């Protein structure tokens, strides 16, 4: 049996095998779920030593796992596997994407400073967290990579961006962003692309963050978050996770780890379907505009088409149907799509960001009320196109 640490393994093989190196020696074929909230300690002094290791970001398992909030073997497996897929030293898993973002902002503040430069558009929750300053950060929002360099200050702890961005599918040139950020570390929300299509650390980003609730889990039945980074960031993040109680539950980590095995297959099949749906939408009367990185016009710098940054366009589409009333009629008129927030599942979802995911976002950064966001699943694209055609026509 090969090991996933074998640098020669390609992404699809890593997806299947990483984080499972010891299964053979354990005599099992599927990964165990270790649910213990506490673990026996070999002695008072050794227990204290293990606690110290866990609480300061290390792996105490050579002595004892101690307590689930500090360290958990099932979570650690998912982290090892995910780090391999992102080409990172390490990864740190959390209870949700927002818990991950919270820990990264806290770590950035501790390590470098409390100022953040955020490139809009961002996921609504991220925008909201930054705009409220809830964590004691001060954020300068910019709307183009060209404005990042001027916004960076000596106390800038983090530059935050998302590509493809939520909900408009705008693309950010990572190399240009990293250059503009200078010494400030760059955090990329890589939820839409997944490591199958884009690995931000290869382009100079310090951190690649995911809502694992989406494509990683992939079946709409688990919440989680994870960030891939170097060992130093991981060492800063783990104590914050332990103190704030934000670690992923072992069952969540198990499902996310299992999700990695089919991630490349799902991502490629869903994006092939999305390409067909996007092309049909572009020709559909009643649809004013379609944003999909696989369409000419949505990828002006060749980040996808020329393979400069992404290995494919993904399976998220944004359309503009012209008004709030028409967007509502389409979202309420579909039958095969589910009208729901979230994305990245095997089934297709549709939602109007202005009313839902981007509700708390400031007016100047809120998407138009006529915009709908579609997450394409694994259904036959012809059925999805039929469903949209019917709903768009009925919307008048
Ligand atoms: C859903 C989402 C988040 C937040 O993740 P949760 O798991 O819901 O906390 C962050 N970024 C993007 C792009 C998302 O889609």
UniProtKB/TrEMBL annotation:
<dbReference type="GO" id="GO:0019343">
    <property type="term" value="P:cysteine biosynthetic process via cystathionine"/>
</dbReference>
<dbReference type="InterPro" id="IPR015421">
    <property type="entry name" value="PyrdxlP-dep_Trfase_major"/>
</dbReference>
<dbReference type="GO" id="GO:0005737">
    <property type="term" value="C:cytoplasm"/>
</dbReference>
<dbReference type="InterPro" id="IPR015422">
    <property type="entry name" value="PyrdxlP-dep_Trfase_small"/>
</dbReference>
<dbReference type="GO" id="GO:0030170">
    <property type="term" value="F:pyridoxal phosphate binding"/>
</dbReference>
<dbReference type="InterPro" id="IPR000277">
    <property type="entry name" value="Cys/Met-Metab_PyrdxlP-dep_enz"/>
</dbReference>
<dbReference type="GO" id="GO:0047982">
    <property type="term" value="F:homocysteine desulfhydrase activity"/>
</dbReference>
<feature type="modified residue" description="N6-(pyridoxal phosphate)lysine">
    <location>
        <position position="214"/>
    </location>
</feature>
<comment type="similarity">
    <text>Belongs to the trans-sulfuration enzymes family.</text>
</comment>
<dbReference type="GO" id="GO:0018826">
    <property type="term" value="F:methionine gamma-lyase activity"/>
</dbReference>
<keyword id="KW-0663">Pyridoxal phosphate</keyword>
<dbReference type="InterPro" id="IPR015424">
    <property type="entry name" value="PyrdxlP-dep_Trfase"/>
</dbReference>
<protein>
    <recommendedName>
        <fullName>homocysteine desulfhydrase</fullName>
        <ecNumber>4.4.1.2</ecNumber>
    </recommendedName>
</protein>
<dbReference type="GO" id="GO:0019346">
    <property type="term" value="P:transsulfuration"/>
</dbReference>
<dbReference type="Pfam" id="PF01053">
    <property type="entry name" value="Cys_Met_Meta_PP"/>
</dbReference>
<dbReference type="GO" id="GO:0004123">
    <property type="term" value="F:cystathionine gamma-lyase activity"/>
</dbReference>
């Amino acid at each position: 049996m090969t090991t996933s640490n074998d640098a020669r393994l390609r992404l699809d093989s890593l997806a299947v095998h990483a984080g499972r190196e010891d299964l053979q020696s354990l005599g099992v074929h599927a990964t165990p779920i270790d649910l213990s909230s506490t673990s026996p300690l070999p002695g008072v002094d050794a227990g204290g030593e293990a606690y110290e290791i866990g609480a300061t970001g290390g792996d105490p398992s050579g002595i004892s796992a101690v307590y689930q909030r500090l360290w958990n073997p099932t979570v650690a497996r998912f982290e090892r596997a995910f780090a391999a897929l992102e080409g990172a030293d390490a990864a740190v898993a959390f209870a949700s994407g927002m818990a991950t973002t919270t820990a990264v902002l806290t770590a950035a503040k501790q390590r470098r400073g409390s100022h953040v430069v955020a490139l809009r558009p961002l996921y609504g929750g991220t925008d909201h967290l930054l705009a409220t300053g809830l964590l004691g950060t001060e954020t300068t929002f910019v709307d183009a990579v060209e404005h990042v360099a001027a916004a960076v200050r000596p106390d800038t702890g983090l530059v935050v961006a998302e590509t493809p961005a939520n909900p408009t599918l705008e693309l950010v040139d990572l190399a240009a962003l990293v250059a503009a950020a200078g010494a400030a570390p760059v955090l990329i929300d890589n939820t839409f692309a997944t490591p199958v299509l884009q690995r931000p650390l290869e382009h100079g980003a310090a951190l690649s963050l995911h809502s694992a609730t989406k494509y990683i889990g992939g079946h709409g039945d688990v919440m989680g978050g994870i960030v891939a980074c170097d060992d130093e960031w991981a060492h800063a993040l783990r104590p914050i996770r332990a103190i704030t109680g934000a670690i992923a539950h072992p069952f969540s980590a198990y499902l996310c780890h299992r999700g990695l095995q089919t991630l490349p297959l799902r991502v490629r099949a869903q994006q092939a379907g999305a390409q067909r749906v996007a092309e049909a939408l572009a020709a559909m009367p009643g649809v004013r505009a379609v944003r999909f990185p696989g369409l000419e016009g949505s990828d002006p710098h060749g980040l996808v088409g020329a393979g400069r940054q992404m290995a494919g366009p993904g399976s998220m589409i944004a359309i503009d149907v012209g008004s709030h009333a028409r967007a509502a009629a389409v979202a309420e008129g579909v039958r095969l799509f589910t009208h729901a927030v979230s994305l990245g599942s095997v089934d297709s979802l549709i939602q109007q960001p202005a009313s839902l995911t981007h509700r708390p976002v400031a007016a100047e950064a809120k998407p138009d009320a006529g915009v709908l966001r579609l997450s394409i699943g694994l259904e036959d694209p012809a059925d999805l196109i039929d469903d949209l055609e019917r709903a768009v026509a009925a919307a008048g």
